[in-house]
Amino acid sequence: MDNQLFYALLVVTGVAAGIINTLAGGGSNLTLPALMVMGMPADVANATNRVSVMLQSMTALVSFKRHNMLPTEDVGPVLVPTLLGGLMGAFAAVYTSTDLLKPLLLGSMLTMALIILVKPDIMIPPPGTEPRHVRDTPSSWFWLWLSGLYGGFVQAGVGFILITALAGSLRYDLVRTNALKAACACAFTALALAIFIPQGLIQWIPGLVLAAGSVVGAQIAVKFAISAKPAILKRLLFLMTLAGTVAALFS
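The structure corresponding to this sequence follows.
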């Protein structure tokens, strides 16, 4: 494929992935195949993709904070178990096949879609629900650790597991859930990069081109999330969960 055409494809894919990852998750199901089209091995594509994820997460985090949608008092407690899992997952990714966690991802996403369809209040709190703090919700530690473990390992689809922890367990609304999700993704992706860079697994030019598109996508998504009605965000999350499940199944 011609380099200019390939980089144009990466930018467009990055915009789509930035929107999807900021609002829900699963954008890496688009970006990983796009990187592998140029002949990258799976481990190199997995590592290179983190450059885009890191920059789009930082962009979303700053944008949510600017709109006062980031629960700053819970960022630290949320990050502790997430980073522990992320560190373990990133080390595992260097030595282990990423196929091992695919059944876990598919099972989690299908369960999430079913809950949103049948009993949405379990996964997505009704307006006015008081959030819980991590220190008062021991079960959230497991979900946050699992999210970090999976995110450090393979990244693709981690947003769905983070939503389960932040909205389902801690009862944050979807906007604040996505703000905290961006903080988590930013933190454990930084850890993963710190491990992947010395291994020489990152191709920087494709990674930065993809990141340029994903940053634009993240900005678009934050503006939409702030202005959209909760019911619209709920339906969108359900559709993205189904789409992400199909994409993960065939990836």
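The chain has a mean pLDDT of 84.
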